[in-house]
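Annotated sample (chain length 304).
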Amino acid sequence: MFKLVCGAGNEDAEYVKRLVYIYSLAGANIFDLSARKEILNSAKEAVSLSGNNQASFCVSIGIKGDKHIKKAVINDSKCIKCQNCLRNCPNDAVYSSIIIDEKRCIGCSKCSDSCPTGAISMTEKDVNYREILPYMVNNGVDILELHIMGNDINDLENKWKVIIECNPKFASICIDRENFGNKEVLNRIKSMISYRNPYTTIIQADGIPMSGAADDYKTTLQAVAMAEIIQNANLPVYIMLSGGTNSKTSELAKLCNINYWGVAVGSWARKIVKQYISNDDFWENITLQEKAINIAKNLVEKCQ
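Output written by the structure step:
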């Protein structure tokens, strides 16, 4: 099972349409999208154009404090135009004039981390989840995913309750160990799945979120390690590898005897086709599309 992560914060409808189109033709099974109506519509249009009748859609929201609902903001009075942010942004969300395209920003914080003057801050941009999640399930979304890397337990409980009430085919929990130890990770998961029937929940074991900038074993090591923690707990869930995933993930997981349901790839999957889907003549240039599809197909096949 291959899941393409377009980015929970990626609100660029045309970019998502191109990305989903390429990976749909490359054999991806699930498309993880921002919880916005226009993004779902773009993804559905792309899948229709590709002729993929087996595609499933997942939409993601996050609790307060989770980086997946954050956007970068530049304080012009502190900005020295060094362009570190432009060079470090993996999603082309920073223009040369040092303006951030909020629709393209996925909240990874690479721009703020590289800023020498502290001119960039990260602010939260949430959605009306009580309105949008029922809409998504009623319009073909099979998986509702909650990113729970934050400390606001009330927000977690409220959003999880709404997800359960929507009754999607699968509910998904995305969690990493950046701020929690193994005990807290498992305690959160056990509490949340107590509301669910066995094997109706996916645990997206996020090694290091938004870290898949390289295609080597070290980059994907934490994704496999995180999955092992979930597997050793013997929970009635499906395990999805994520966070630093790449073409080496499945190989390493198999060597470590991880019984995974699927691999979710975001940063690396987007990076390897970026030069093709960014072209102005993308929809007219069939040769360009074929090159991108072949590259994507190679990744999808290695992740099975």
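Annotation: Residues 43 and 151 are 32 Å apart (CA to CA).
Annotation: DSSP finds eleven helices and ten strands in the chain.
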